[in-house]
Amino acid sequence: MLFDRHARSVYRYVAQRLGDHVADDVMSETFLVAFERRSAYDVSVSDARPWLLGIATRLMRKHDRVEAVAWKGLSADMAAQIVPDFIEQAGSRIDAERLSRRLGKALRRLSDGDRDTLLLYAWGDLDYASIAAAMQVPVGTVRSRLNRARRQLRRAAGITTLEQETDHGRVDTAPQHS
In whole numbers, what is the pLDDT of the chain averaged over residues? Predict the structure, then answer.
């Protein structure tokens, strides 16, 4: 039942980070680890997805080299998914490709914690509290990591924005005019 309910979202998250060729293995290993650690799971938590994505995130660290290659090959796709507004602001395809390369490089330069937090937010579609549970860190750490990652991506894109955090963990941004 747990597998049927969450396998698709775990697979999608892993495939976006590592590619389809590794996603099956990591997804399978995620559910194996979850089964082995089932006694540690807090059954009062109704949604196991954050817990599973946290396990998958930790397992992906074993695949750092695969992920590094995937970052290079998928930087345009990642940039388009994580920061689509940045791409839309680019005036031409060449500008968009340059921007994608800069953003891909900025993503690779993020610390593991910042990148994992950002991708759990962007691709795992988790809110702050769920990311905190998945990463086993306080919500304040999630906020700091996301803020730092966004700032670095904006800097790489050459865009300055004012942020206003909404009450559900998503951020509304508005361009800052000088």
Answer: 80
